[in-house]
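Hi V.,

Quick status before I head out on leave. The structure for the redesign project is tokenized and pasted below; the design run finished overnight.
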């Protein structure tokens, strides 16, 4: 299985390399188990690294749209807008961005998440 990310060429290259390494590890397992494990671990690390790069780029693009649409002021001033923004992309880094704009709103979102668990 190979992962291709439309938003990042680098992420795709790392992922393809990682998947190829992991496959090589699986194929060579019967011949040299130690090498196979090393290849498998390296492959998984590269595949995860590629995914992280893609996710980071996607988040930056999403937040750039918020900035371009001048929504930061609305997020900082209106709790409902802050919550709606978080719900569109429910991640810790979204809470961090909201906290930079209005720490009280970010704390409200954190409490709601904790209450749901």
């Amino acid at each position: 299985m190979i992962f291709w990310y439309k938003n990042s060429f680098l992420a795709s290259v790392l992922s393809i390399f990682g998947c190829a390494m992991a496959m090589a590890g699986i194929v060579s397992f019967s011949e040299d188990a130690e090498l196979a494990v090393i290849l498998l671990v390296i492959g998984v690390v590269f595949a995860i690294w590629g995914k992280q790069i893609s996710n980071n780029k996607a988040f930056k693009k999403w937040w750039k749209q918020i900035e371009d649409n001048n929504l930061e002021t609305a997020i900082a001033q209106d709790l409902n807008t802050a919550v709606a923004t978080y719900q569109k992309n429910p991640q810790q880094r979204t809470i961090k961005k909201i906290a930079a704009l209005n720490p009280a709103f970010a704390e409200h979102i954190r409490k709601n998440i904790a209450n749901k668990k």
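Above is the designed sequence. The two ends are 34 Å apart (CA to CA).

G. will cover questions while I'm gone.

Best,
W.
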